[in-house]
Amino acid sequence: MLPIIDIGSPEAPNEIDRACRQFGFFAIRGHGVSDDLRESLIRSAKDFFARSSDEKEKVALARGGSAWRGWFPLGGELTSGVPDLKEGYYFGRELPVDTRAMHGPNIWPDEPASLRPLVSEWMATMEPLAQHVLGLMAEGLGVGRTFFRDDLTADPTALYRIFRYPPHPDNAPDRWGVAEHSDYGLLTLLAHDGTAGLQVKVGDDWVDAPHDPDLIICNLGDMLDRATEGRYRSTPHRARNSSTADRYSLPFFLDPGWNAVIEPSQSAFSGSSRISIGDRQGRSSAAAPAIAGPCGTSGRGRSGAIVFWTARARSDFNLSSRSVRSSSYCSRAAITTWAVFSCLNAVNSPPANGFPTTRGRSIGDDSADA
After folding, report:
1. Which residue from 335, 356, 295 is spatially nearest to 66, judged by alpha carbons?
2. From 122's CA, which of 57, 90, 189, 327 has a CA 20 to 30 Å away?
3. What pTM value is reported for the model?
4. Do 199 and 281 belong to one domain?
5. Domain around 58
6. Quick one: 235 and 216 in the same domain?
């Protein structure tokens, strides 16, 4: 059973610290997010996804360009090279047109007209909640509650997705709504419609996550795992909808600012116990080939969003001290995320079909959330 934590409790920082060390997942109550807002958003999402493919194609990811916003169809996203049994819609902060990947305006459907204001309200609600949870983590780590907000998340990259998982087909026992993977970033907050389906790997076992819709599931990404030198866990998870109705999942991602600077200094988490990447959860500790550019070529550089979040080091990758050694390598997750390609100037446009390709932890790579 994953921990359920009341974030209004004075014990919340210590309880979150224990949960992050042991599971990398926990559920929160006392978050103050309106049930009415969540239910209204899900109703509006159902309205959108029920529309024809031709209508949804008007807001496809390919039309969002490098801003990485828009709709993708069922099977349009991959994990470990296999199409996921889900469709989804990507959103981000509402920004002006920008040459940087993952920056720019959202694209909105004409109908339902309610989707835009509801998504905007949801993101405006979740961002301060995610900052608050990070603050409790920082307090549990003993570095002061404003540690992340003062630096890495002072101007964060905030991403949001709505996923629809249809009932799982009887003839596909080897398929998943989203297969085993871990998240590449910092912190994920997952709301949902109350339909079971999310599973978390704890040791050698798969544990069902709580599916009370009034709870919000929190999980840690690879960047935070490596930032804390393994003290906090980025845990593999997967999802399959075994019910007879659609499952709706609402993951919100709070990640470092695009221009977060990383430079060598002493570790802020000097009291943490070191756990090597290759020793936990069957992970591969092998580094991907070096890539020319800001990742792995110097001891100082800008995060470029996912580039440094997914860096894998031969020696130390310690974002708690804003440091990355010059022997660092980019993980394969970085080179399978087209936004990172754009950041590295390896390519200047999204894939031809406009849909991102992600890879699962089962082959040693990182992925987006369930």
Report:
1. 356
2. 57
3. 0.78
4. no
5. 4-255
6. yes
Full pLDDT tens readout for the chain, 370 residues: 899 999 999 999 999 999 999 999 999 999 999 999 999 999 999 999 999 999 999 999 999 999 999 999 999 999 988 999 999 999 999 999 999 899 999 999 999 999 999 999 999 999 999 999 999 999 999 999 999 999 889 999 999 999 999 999 988 888 999 999 999 899 999 999 999 999 999 999 999 999 999 999 999 999 888 888 789 999 999 999 999 999 999 999 999 888 876 443 335 555 443 322 223 333 322 222 222 222 222 222 333 433 333 332 222 323 233 232 222 222 222 322 323 323 322 222 333 333 333 334 322 233 356 7
Q: From 255, 273, 301, give the residue that closes a domain.
A: 255
Token pair recorded at residue 269: 């988490």
User: 320: closest CA among 184, 143, 57?
Assistant: 143
Look up residue 300 and give its amino acid. R
- At a CB cut-off of 8 Å and minimum separation 6, what does 41 contact? 118, 119, 122, 162, 250
Amino acid at 297: T
224-240 exposure pattern, b = at least 16 Cβ within 10 A, e = fewer: bbbbbbbbbbbbbbbbb
